[in-house]
TrEMBL record:
<feature type="domain" description="XdhC Rossmann">
    <location>
        <begin position="78"/>
        <end position="219"/>
    </location>
</feature>
<dbReference type="InterPro" id="IPR027051">
    <property type="entry name" value="XdhC_Rossmann_dom"/>
</dbReference>
<dbReference type="InterPro" id="IPR052698">
    <property type="entry name" value="MoCofactor_Util/Proc"/>
</dbReference>
<protein>
    <submittedName>
        <fullName>Xanthine dehydrogenase accessory factor</fullName>
    </submittedName>
</protein>
<dbReference type="Pfam" id="PF13478">
    <property type="entry name" value="XdhC_C"/>
</dbReference>
Length: 231
């Protein structure tokens, strides 16, 4: 493998950025494709997009010979804003699904080790946590506190960062008021359709556990089908 390509790939991995190493199996020629590259003129565009979604490496047949796609995508993360009952149910489900989970809530009455054991809890304001662990395109954000003082900032940050999933708890009326605040804060209204609100798949969920299932379903759908799938 070309040393320059290897160095570039390692740097992308360290920065939690996705890339695919394309290797010609006949001539051994290699090139590196980044997730943010313009793929419109790439002959493998459709396959590359699919592989960025699935995270799976493999061989692809082309008119000029077979190529092997070595896919490197960051481990998906879930940031839950709010240490509430829904979050208690969602955490173990999301971990089983392979997500790296963080729960953020500055309210000491909710953010306790007894309710969220295992070290994933951060009892700080989201803006402080994000200084240490910034959001990125392979992060899902689910805001479930019902408190604009806590939810609004991470939701706007998630939209601006391009998180693959952005969900918010609340009725349509509550969400409408939320969007008014976001627009007043200068956020581009074109981004609003990215928010999954009311949060989760429309399966008639009522209990915190059922809502957690609905939320996880939306997150996985967005991860595998693309962010627009959750809108």
């Amino acid at each position: 493998m070309d040393l320059t390509l290897l160095t570039d790939l390692n740097e992308l991995r360290s920065a939690r950025r996705a890339a695919i190493l394309v290797t010609g199996l006949q001539d051994g020629r290699q090139r590196l494709v980044r997730a943010e590259d313009d793929l419109s003129s790439d002959p493998l565009a459709d396959e590359l997009r699919k592989r960025f979604r699935s995270g799976k490496s493999g061989t692809v047949e082309t008119d000029s010979g077979d190529v092997f796609l070595t896919v490197s995508v960051p481990a998906p993360r879930l940031v839950i804003i709010g240490a509430v009952h829904i979050s208690q149910a969602l955490v173990p489900m999301a971990e089983i699904a392979g997500l790296d989970v963080t729960v953020i809530d500055p309210r000491t009455a909710f953010a306790t080790e007894e309710r969220f054991p295992g070290g994933m809890l951060r009892g700080d304001w989201p803006e402080d946590v994000f200084k240490e662990a910034p959001l990125d395109a392979y992060t899902a954000v689910a805001a479930v506190t019902h408190d604009p003082k806590i939810d609004d900032f991470p939701l706007m940050e998630a939209l601006g960062t391009g998180c693959f999933y952005v969900g918010a708890l609340g009725s349509r009326k509550t969400h409408g008021k939320r969007l008014e605040r976001f627009e007043a804060a200068g956020l581009d209204p074109a981004l609003f359709k990215r928010i999954d609100a009311p949060i989760g798949l429309d399966i008639g969920a009522a209990s915190p556990q059922e809502i957690a299932v609905a939320v996880l379903g939306s997150i996985i759908h967005a991860l595998r089908k693309g962010p627009e799938a959750a809108a």
